Amino acid sequence: MTVAVLLLVTLMGFESMGVASAMPTLVTDLHGTALYAWPFLTFPAAGVVAVVWSGRWCDGAGPRPALIAGPLLFVAGLLLAGAARSMAVLLAARVLQGLADGVLIVPIYVVVGLLYPERDRPSMFGALSTAWVVPSLVGPALAGWFTEHLSWRWVFFAIVPFAVLGWLMLVPVLRTLPPHTAPVSASRRTPLWAALAGAGALLLISWAAQLRSAAAFLPAEIGLVVLTGSVRTLLPPGALRARRGLPVTVLARGLLTGTFFATEAFVPLTLSTVHGYSVTASGLPLTVGALGWAGASMWQSRRSGIRRETLVWLGFLLSCAGIGSMALIAPAWGPAWLTAALWTVAGAGTGLATSSLSVLTLSASTDADRGFNSSAIQVSDMLGSVLLAGLGGALVARLAPPAGVVVLDLLMAALALAGAAITGNRCETAASVSLE
What we know:
By secondary structure, the chain is mainly α. It has helices spanning about 1-30, 40-60, 65-80, 85-115, 120-130, 135-150, 155, 160-175, 190-210, 215-235, 245-265, 265-275, 280-300, 310-330, 340-365, 370-400, 405-425. Helix content is about 75%, strand content about 0%. The two termini are about 25 Å apart.
C-alpha cells in the first residue's frame, strides 16, 4: 500500500511540474496562446468537485472504489492530453486530470487513518511530502528535455506505464481492506451543488484576476459571494470563524499553503526582473525550498514527544519569517544571494505544519466522517492557494515590481502570523498529546 501510494503521488508531482514546463510550447503548437491560463484554471476547479465527491464516496462505501477509480482517471487524462490536437481536447484532459487528483488524494488520507496506527501517521505524511521532492528537482528539466528533443506529448505519455504499474500494485492490496460498515453522518452529507458552485466561483474569480482591469471587479465580487456560500457547506461548521478543534485545523491548512504558494510564485520574477538572474538561477530557490519542506516534514515524523499543535504554531512562525524576509529581497538593493537560504526557512515551516495539520485532521475523524474531513482539508488547501495567488497577481500587476512584490510579501507574512495566532492551542484534538 505504501509503495503504491507513494508511486502514484510522485507521478502526479511529475505531471504537475511537467505541464508547467511544457505549456509554452504546448499552447503554441495547439494555437491556443489566448487560452494559456485555462489549463491551469480548469485543473483546480475540477479538483474541488472531485475531492467533495470522493469524500462522500469514501464515507458511503469506504476508500476502495475511489482508490480504484482515481488512477484510471489519471491514466485517461494523460492519454487524452498526449493525443490532444486542439485546446478544447487539452482542456477536457486537464479536467480529467483534476478529477483524478481529487478522487485519489482523499482516499489516500482515509487509508492512512484507517490502516496506519496513530504513531505511524506522521511518518506517512512525511513520506508523502518527500514524494514531491524528486519531481521538484528533476521534473521541469526532464519535461523540458522531452519537449525539446522528442515532443511535449511525451510529458504525458511517459507517465502512463508507471501509473498503470501503481494501479496494478494497489488493486490486490485493496482486497484486504476491512469492509466499510459505518453509517454516514447526516451532518457530513455534502451536497454536490456546493462543490459545483465553488468550482464555478473559483473559475470566475481566477478569470477576473486575469483581466487586471476595472471590468474584473464585478465578476470577482460575484465569485466571492458564491464561493463564501459554498465554503460554509464544504468546510466543517465554524471553520470561517476559526472555531477550536477541527474547524480551525482545516482553516489553518488553507492559510498555510495559500500564503506560501502566493509568495513563491513571485520569487523567480523578482530575481529575474529586479536582480537580473537567469531563468535557471531564478528557479533554484524554489527547488531548495521544496527540500526544506520535505526535510521538515520528515523531521516532525520523528518527534513523537512534541504536541502537534506546537509544531503547527512553530511552522506558521517559520513560514512567516521566510515569507516576510522576501520583502527584503524584492528591492534592487536587497541581498538576493540570500534568497535560497531564506526561502528554505519558509519551506521548512510549511512542511512542518502541513504534515501536523493532516495528522490532527485524521485524529479528529471517525469512520463515519473521515472522507468528509479529508476532503475539507483538501478544499481549504486548494482555495487558499488559488485565491491568495490570484490576490498576489492582482497586487503585483497594479503596483508593479518591486513595490507590488514587497506589499504582497508583507501581506502574506501578516496572514501567516495570523495563522500562528489563531492556531496555538486551538487545534487541540486527540493528537495533541504525546504519541509516545
